[in-house]
Amino acid sequence: MKDVLIQYMKRFTDLSDDECARLTADVPIATFPKGTILLHQGDVPTKCYFVLSGCIRQYKVDEDGNEHTVDFITEEQSITILTKHHTDGRSPYSLTCLEECCLVVGELSTEHEQYEKNPVLEAMTRDMMQEDMGTMRDAFASFMSSTPEERYQTLMEKRPDLVHRVPQYQLASYLGITPESLSRIKKRATRHLRIVE
């Protein structure tokens, strides 16, 4: 599984395979069963994750008890809930494994210590985070300016696997629509595809 991590790292560094292997030799990897809650909304985050396999759902529950899916984190994606801008440091989100997940698990408390030991790791992590932030900004801007049909089409173009990996009501929440609306959009898309064919 570390091969997945090494190949991902090589997108952000000129290190050789052997150097990447040495850098990841002590990286903790753990497997979590489907349904594992990695972080509860309201807790202070202590860990960060990189997905080698599996799918994590990031969501929040509002004051009325309604769940709102914010993101799905899958292979070769990382997740760190940043809370330094919150006075109490508590997470506004929960993280749950929707599938059995094999994850690199990092301790936020030892982040600076790791960077001091491996300066190249800090530069690499910064580049990874910049790419993630850019992708998130673009996705948010696209989401805000698009119709539900356009959001579904973008999903089918960029992350079609999610349609088969996550419950439809969570997918609908992620797209900002009701499950009934999602069902109608999928039917229209299927009819359109048949006409085009």
UniProtKB/TrEMBL annotation:
Record's keyword annotation contains ATP-binding: no
SUPFAM superfamilies cross-referenced by the UniProt entry: cAMP-binding domain-like
All copies of domain Cyclic nucleotide-binding, residue ranges: 11-70
UniProt keywords, alphabetically: Activator
InterPro entries associated with the record: cNMP-bd_dom, cNMP-bd_dom_sf, RmlC-like_jellyroll
Lineage top rank: taxon: Bacteria
Coiled-coil positions: none
Name this polypeptide is given: Crp/Fnr family transcriptional regulator
Organism: Exiguobacterium aestuarii
